[in-house]
Design brief:
- Helix content is 30%, strand content 27%.
- The protein is of the alpha+beta class.
- It has four domains: 195 residues, MutS, DNA mismatch repair protein, domain I (3-Layer(aba) Sandwich), CATH 3.40.1170; 49 residues, no CATH class; 113 residues, Dna Ligase, domain 1, CATH 3.30.1490.100; 79 residues, no CATH class.
- The protein is elongated.
Amino acid sequence: MLWLAVHAPRLSLEAFEATLPAAPGDAARPVALLAGHRIEIVNDAARRLGVQPGQRRATALALAADLVLGQADAARDAAALRAIAHAALGFTPAVTLEPPHTVLLEVRASLRCFGGLQALVRRLRAALAPLGHGLSLATAPTPLGAALLARRPDAVDPRARGAASRDRVAAGDDGAAGDLIDGPHLVQPAAFEARLGALPVWLLGPGREHWETLQGMGLRTLADLRALPRAGLARRFGEGLLDDLDRALGQRADPRQRVAAPEAFDERLELFARADTTAQVLAGAQHLLARLAAWASARQSRIAAFTLRMHHEPRHRADASVPPATELVIALAEPAADAAHLQVLLRERLARCALPAPTLELQIRCRDTVAGAAPNGELFPSRRGSAEGLGRLLERLRARLGDDGVLRPAPRADHRPELAAALVPAGTMRAASAVQGGLTAPPGWPLHRPVWLIAEPQPLAERAGLPLLDGHALRLLAGPERIEAGWWDEALVARDYFVAQGDDGSLVWVYRLRLPQDGPGGWWLHGRFG
């Protein structure tokens, strides 16, 4: 087995920063999370100002007056970690969670599919990038061993890495490829055990609990623990420390419960500050859209429609005209799983939306999906690619103009030519044939009728019983086609239609009334071919 660990060392802070309103110079904004009344984690900007984990809230504010403080939230962290797991499910079904803030993937069976370990890691990073987390990756033969390597002390946010650090070759690798992404990616058991033995004891859960005692005894690394008698360690520190060490080395069974993506997506994001504009709503919704795309990837499906629900500030709900929440339903003409495309559609819809009250919480729901992976990119243009481009254009037009602002012709179950088609909203392909109460075109729809119908039929002069067009007699080529319908809605028509050819070779569609009470007799021009 080969396990790949994805560790997000700043997941709590990054999940909180997703709730902050977008502002210029976000990278220089000091941010910290509180656990009780003490600082738990800080970003780089706060650390440069002297704010450190463990400080009291008052001390931190004295060092950085503009410090943004938030409360640590286990539920918010769990939602962020779940999104990472969903993105990982697009690469292997064997995905498990390893608290805190680590996702494990068993990738041995996936290496051939993705072209090797480095190619898989590169594509995994690209899939995780929209979630906005700094990640540390490591590979090992055991799940706990991979998790410990990913949490090693020298693991840093990859956005702060230099090129030289990224190109560092992993010590003890199998030699097939260097540690070009993050690492270490250890495959050989000997190299894995040597690297694992150099890790500090406090990475193990029980080792963190007894860290001061272990340090006083000179036991700083896992190799130091292995060198001591097991019976004495078990009496002094309990069996848990040795159990974790054995599971990390693969000397004890380590069963894992796999993660499964739910059938429906329903995620909330509580904003740190109220959103008064749709631009602020979009800034928060983009994080939920990234999680939605990760969920769709885990389900091996594409999104046909989703709903954004904006929960408004409670103090405005006393006004009967202000609803508790505003919903926007985004329906796609062509199902997709691209977070950037979903964001474009949502931006267009929000541009036409006026918030009745400030928004405090966002929620995205999705139940309407289409099974199957997204189509592969094409090297050369094809008819399928052109159709997808047209679908994307229709989606953007519908999002900008509304469903009733983009119409398409559709057949209607009526034999009268002027009523045989109608303009309907250009919805999804599945709804394309549904027109006015679910009526669809009858089977065997004739193909010898013109596409171009004249809105108001034009009377034609006649000579010797034949109709005239532009002063020239028409030659009747086909007909008559008798149409007699409309008795049910008091719009009866009784006509004999003919396909006729003009003097210049053009084809037209003409008819003659059968019943005198329908109107004046003679010939009428109703359509043109070509």
